[in-house]
Design goal:
There is one protein chain. By secondary structure, the protein is α/β, with parallel strands linked by helices. It has a six-stranded parallel beta sheet, with helices on both faces. A three-stranded mixed beta sheet has the order 7-8-9, with helices on one face. The longest helix has 28 residues. Bound molecules: nicotinamide-adenine-dinucleotide. Nicotinamide-adenine-dinucleotide binds next to helix 1, helix 4, strand 7 and helix 11.
Length: 302
């Protein structure tokens, strides 16, 4: 890959929460670009970003920030992407590279195609860092969030190769590893590996919390259930947006899961121990295999 000199480039990060703030801080600390500026619609987040030195400059005027930018990283809740693109579009410099962090890609891509010109679309590199945490906001940002984590890029048919190369170079400069994936495939894979598990965690914790007779369950919560509650502490707005943006893929995997759950219910109802053992055994084998892959690659999961 040919490296571009990014020393004279200005990176604009739009949305200075966990994902945007961490990216800004990592790029600034590594000297990946000449200057890092940040924009957020929330004045407290802008103040926090300056106080924590996540950016060289915090800008409250989006238009001024966009006019100064050579590369723009959008890290707002997915359903805010379209309005941000609409506000930025008239002020983009020719050639400015755009990328984003949205956890579902199909809707972001249709938003980009609806709002950007053909030339601007050619500079858009949709992306999704497979890294994160249950905490959100500027105070949760950390410089090493992406070290040894995978970043999935889902270039559109019209995305230019040099734009993909520049975004790849930025992520690699802060210790991340790039995978390229088709847009629909990304949304199917993430529906199964990330969106469904979060849905199950939200649902289980909500169901048990509603049942006041079960308050003891929280008292004795350990191991597995504690992990569910940790996942269920994720930001409701962010997850609302993800499920609204990825409904088709999530419904497919939910239906598959519900059918399997129904079979397991039958096994419990009919004391079918063989069926249960085969499901638990297969799951354990899959988990052992997965752990091996992770330790071989020394990559971290989300
Ligand atoms: P966050 O809540 O920590 O940060 C979002 C920031 O965007 C906030 O500072 C908020 O003030 C700002 N914002 C919201 N609407 C805005 C608007 N219209 N204009 C400008 N700023 C606006 O959220 P996050 O966890 O950083 O997630 C950001 C994006 O990254 C989401 O699209 C999410 O799907 C994606 N993502 C999150 C994770 C994760 O684990 N948190 C992982 C991968 C990808």
């Amino acid at each position: 890959m040919t490296l571009t000199n990014l020393n004279d480039k200005t990176l604009l990060v739009v949305g200075l929460g966990l994902i945007g703030g961490s990216f800004a801080m990592a790029c600034k600390n590594h000297g990946s670009v000449g200057r890092v500026i940040g924009y957020d619609r929330d004045a407290e987040s802008l103040k926090g970003a300056m106080a924590r030195k996540l950016v060289d400059h915090a800008e409250s005027d989006l238009m001024a920030a966009v006019q100064a930018a050579d590369i723009i990283f959008i890290a707002v809740p997915i359903l805010a992407t379209r309005s941000i693109l609409t506000l930025m579009q008239p002020h983009l410099k020719p050639g400015t590279v755009l990328t984003d962090a949205g956890s579902a890609k199909g809707m972001v891509v249709s938003d980009a195609r609806a709002v950007l010109t053909v030339a601007q679309c050619a500079r858009f590199v949709p992306g999704h860092p497979i890294a994160g945490a249950e905490r959100s906001g500027v105070m949760a940002a950390k410089a090493d969030l992406y070290v040894n984590h995978r970043i999935i890029l889902t270039p559109m048919a019209e995305t230019e190769q040099d734009a993909v190369a520049m975004v790849t170079q930025l992520w690699e400069s802060i210790g991340s590893h790039i995978d390229i994936m088709a847009i629909d495939h990304h949304d199917d894979v993430l529906a199964a590996t990330s969106h469904l598990p979060h849905l199950l965690a939200f649902n289980l914790v909500d169901t048990l919390a509603k049942n006041t007779e079960n308050s003891e369950i929280f008292h004795y919560a350990a191991g597995g259930f504690r992990d569910f509650t940790r996942i269920a502490a994720s930001d409701p707005t962010m997850w609302h947006d993800i499920f609204m943006a990825n409904r088709k893929s999530v419904l497919l995997v939910m239906d598959q899961y519900l059918a399997e759950l129904h079979q397991l219910r039958n096994a419990v109802a009919h004391a079918d121990g063989d069926y249960m053992k085969s499901v638990f055994g297969n799951a354990k084998e899959a988990r052992d295999h997965f752990s091996q892959i992770l330790s071989d690659r020394q990559l971290k999961d989300e």
